[in-house]
Write a sequence for this structure.
């Protein structure tokens, strides 16, 4: 399914099988999960550099070609970070997530809402056998970038999650495993998400307008809503962090310096490193992280995107070609 012009929708097109270039493998797509970033691309908050484009960057598939790292027929995962330059200031110091010259799957190169894709073999992951392709797909962005966000919270014992969608679903399981207490904040009136959060072990779940019963050590904002930054700052203790996990956010309203004072920190999380992905995939089956998925056939991808936009999904949408 191809995005042909700004604003979408995705249109069905028969394309030639993609040919792997040097260092790439061809992958037969088994499942590809939807991410909020796909909506940001469609809504032109993150305009893609060129059209036509195949979206989708949480891909699980089978290698179709032998390569240095993989044999034909292996199950692999393709994440958002498609490739980095390896030579810029950031790559050299190990911050490849900040590379000056990166490629991103389903954004600067074609992604996984298709039957086949190609990917750089150095940036894809062998997958744990514990997961089916459908179950594994949401681990590749919601899970991995969520995991990087959780790492930024350091040794926080009490963590607020603002927005309880696909990423929060997975990360609350990691937080509980690490003996951290999660306070879940949802849209006003979204009692369903609050119930889900409690079932998954949140110690408290209410709307983002509510004040938590205790001061938080850190807060992670998963929802793309700028006004949540001052809201979360008011909920964290001195020295605490507010971590913005998404790639796009609406504008942040001005706020009194007093709520930042006390060495509180506001930071964003950008992309992922391969190390984040490897660590997370090693951890997932140990917990074990359960994914909550709703599947759609490939030709229903526009419907799946709309359902995410309308807040109708409780976990992750997964597209099956
Ligand atoms: Zn994503
Ligand atoms: Zn670089």
């Amino acid at each position: 399914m191809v995005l042909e012009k700004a604003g979408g929708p995705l249109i069905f097109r028969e394309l030639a099988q993609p040919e792997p270039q040097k260092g790439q493998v061809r992958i037969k797509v088994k499942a590809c999960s939807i991410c909020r970033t796909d909506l940001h691309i469609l809504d032109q908050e993150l305009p893609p550099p060129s059209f036509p484009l195949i979206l989708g960057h949480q891909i699980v598939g089978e290698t179709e070609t032998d390569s240095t790292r993989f044999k034909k027929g292996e199950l692999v995962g393709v994440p958002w970070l498609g490739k980095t330059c390896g030579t810029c200031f950031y790559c050299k110091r190990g911050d490849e997530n900040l590379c000056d010259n990166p490629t991103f799957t389903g954004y600067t190169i074609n992604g996984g809402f298709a039957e086949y894709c190609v990917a750089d073999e150095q940036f894809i992951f062998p997958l744990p056998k514990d997961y089916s392709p459908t179950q594994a797909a949401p681990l590749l962005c919601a899970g991995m970038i969520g995991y990087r966000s959780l790492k930024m919270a350091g040794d926080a014992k009490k963590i607020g999650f603002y927005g309880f969608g696909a990423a929060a679903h997975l990360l609350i399981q990691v937080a509980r495993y690490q003996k951290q207490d999660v306070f879940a904040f949802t849209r006003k009136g979204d009692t369903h998400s609050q119930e889900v959060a409690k079932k998954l072990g949140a110690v408290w779940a209410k709307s983002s307008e509510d004040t938590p019963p205790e001061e938080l050590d850190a807060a992670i904002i998963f929802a793309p809503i700028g006004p949540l930054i001052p809201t979360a700052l008011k909920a964290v203790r001195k020295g605490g962090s507010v971590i913005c996990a998404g790639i796009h956010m609406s504008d942040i309203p001005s706020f009194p310096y007093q709520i930042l004072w006390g060495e509180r920190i506001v930071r964003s999380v950008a992309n992922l490193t391969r190390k984040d992905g490897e660590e997370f995939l090693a951890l997932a089956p140990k917990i074990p992280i359960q994914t909550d998925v709703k599947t759609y056939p490939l030709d229903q991808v526009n419907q799946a995107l709309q359902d995410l936009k309308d807040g109708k999904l409780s976990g992750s949408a997964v597209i099956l070609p």
